[in-house]
Amino acid sequence: MDRNWAERLAEHRASLTRRELDIIDFITAHPHEAVTFTQSQLCERAGVSKPLVIACFRRLGYEDYREFRQGIRGFYLGQIDSAQASAVALKDIVDVTQLIGAALDVESSTIGVLRRQLKARDVEDLAEAIWQAHAVYLYAEGTGFEPAHYLAQRLRRCGVRAVLVGADRMHALDDLAPLGTGDVCLTFFYTQDIAVVLELFRLVKQRGGRTAMVTGSPDPELYPLADFHLFVPRGHWNFKNSLAGPMIFAHILLLTVEFLGGQNLQDRLQNLEERRKGFDSKTKEEVS
Description:
Elements: H1 5-12, H2 18-29, H3 31-34, H4 39-46, H5 50-59, H6 65-91, H7 96-117, H8 120-132, E1 136-139, H9 145-157, E2 162-165, H10 172-176, E3 184-189, H11 194-206, E4 210-215, E5 228-231, H12 244-287
Parallel strand pairs: 1-2, 1-3, 3-4, 4-5
Helix pairs in contact: 2-5, 6-7, 7-12, 8-12, 9-12
């Protein structure tokens, strides 16, 4: 299986020297430059030697600098395209038609990255864990709250006990009180404080639960934090509040859960819809 840029870093980061980590830090801070730089340009801008760059990319499992740069480009492409589209939106937009086009370009780019980066095995594994769990706890703030809320509502229709945590942060611990062995805690990590997520995951682990993180962050240090880690981009920079990527992923995960549920779940959903129609009709009669 081909490993993406962040997965390689997560696997080999501990073996990188301090100076090699300086190269990684520069790339993370300047991806829009790194994907276009020649090896000499990267050495000059990052303040490192050519042998050091060679040692760095070989330690990460790349055969040559060209493959190394392609790995960076493939991972950061959505951010780069989004940055360019945002710049157009800020500087060159003259009417709403153009604005809509620029926004859709960003969303299309984000979805393209999701298509390239999202692995079916990862989605299926998480969906299986959700099915097997006694309960699923979903935690998110900011951008991540909407897909978390959507999943919490829809998973309940599938018969999954889903708890939305943190809608009121003061009562988050109350929401988590029943969490135990085999349960799953899923967070959409986009804007919340990493310290809060770490504390949440620590609690889940202590109680024997499993953790899942959905994030658009390219930081490879996030990868070891959860049992399941899925890279899901959103719009970036001036379009950073885009929900296209996270919401599409939430829907894909829900569809995967429904797929794994088979005919029994389809029958359940059909019965639910029939009861809903009857409930709606009765409500309308009472109102009239």
